[in-house]
User: What shape does this take?
Amino acid sequence: MDDSLINFNHQIVQSENQEIDDFILRYHWKMNTTPTGLRFMIYKKGNGISAEKGNIVTLQYTLKKLTGDLVYATVPGHPVELEIGRHELNNGLEEGVLMMKTGERAKFILPSHLAYGLLGDLDKIPLRTILVYDVELLDVKQGKK
Assistant: This one.
């Protein structure tokens, strides 16, 4: 692979990490970071069952850009059901949900490589966009086998 492309990608990751770190500092959030770069904070504990691959999860969420602009949100009282491991969630959201138990609420900050990457979602999310999810895990059920 071309060294200039590798350097360019490295610069993008460094730039996004700095943007995310500045954002977290500005809001005084106490977040952890996974090896993939996902930042997460579970701010309401739950005592339900943990989500696992193959489960169908029921979520309420808001999705914003790092600028605070709302991108998508579930309608209150009308959560979404998604199956983990079936590519129904982007990589970062799936990684975050797998750390949750029912009843928990969490914030996730996804660098673009864990969100919609170079292309965006071809609708409301532009290319290389850092995203902030606020997620509530309402239910976990066994998936179809």
